[in-house]
């Protein structure tokens, strides 16, 4: 099966998982968990829609069931947050909830619009380096968007473990993918100039 099967299935089941926790622990009065459900749940639905409307090539490759289960286990680290929110009865002040929602929405815009641009340009101009609009200053702005998305609902747990899990993904998966991408883009004649004028991931840092 394709890698996207395991990813899409996991993201699609997020809402069911969170609702199951709410039912099991009777957490009907916890505002944080319902905001978490709205944020992470909607992200899962939007991801599946994106996966079929404008899929990412890297998830189209086939993999063994064992690697698929490895992907599943890795993504399950993101399910730690709702468990912490419910079992520790995390209740955040309204300003903090608003901040998390704002972070998530900004991340959603950056991630999905940049992925759409990349899909369209690769489809109609496959041999031209993508270095305009969303990618003019940040070569991996889609990852910036994804970071803000995960921060938006991970911060709702108000605990270090979800942040550590996200950091693990950044260090072990995202950054190696960015380096691999730069090596692939180096085949374009104008990449060196583009690289000098842009940042890989974090503005003004790297």
> What is the straight-line distance between the termini?
35 Å
Order of helices and strands: HHHHHHHHH
The mean pLDDT is: 92
- Supply the number of helical segments: 9
Q: Indicate the structural class.
A: mainly alpha
Biggest sheet: strands, sense, closure? none
Backbone shape: globular
Q: Which spans of ≥5 residues are poorly predicted at pLDDT below 50?
A: none
How many strands?
0
Number of domains: 1
Radius of gyration: 18 Å
Summarize the amount of helix as a percent range: 55-70%
The percent range for strand residues is under 5%
How would you describe this structure to a colleague?
With 206 residues, the chain is mainly alpha-helical. It has one domain. It is 69% helix and 0% strand. The protein has helices spanning 3-12, 14-25, 31-53, 65-75, 80-87, 94-124, 141-154, 160-185, 191-197. Helix 2 (14-25) packs antiparallel against helix 3.
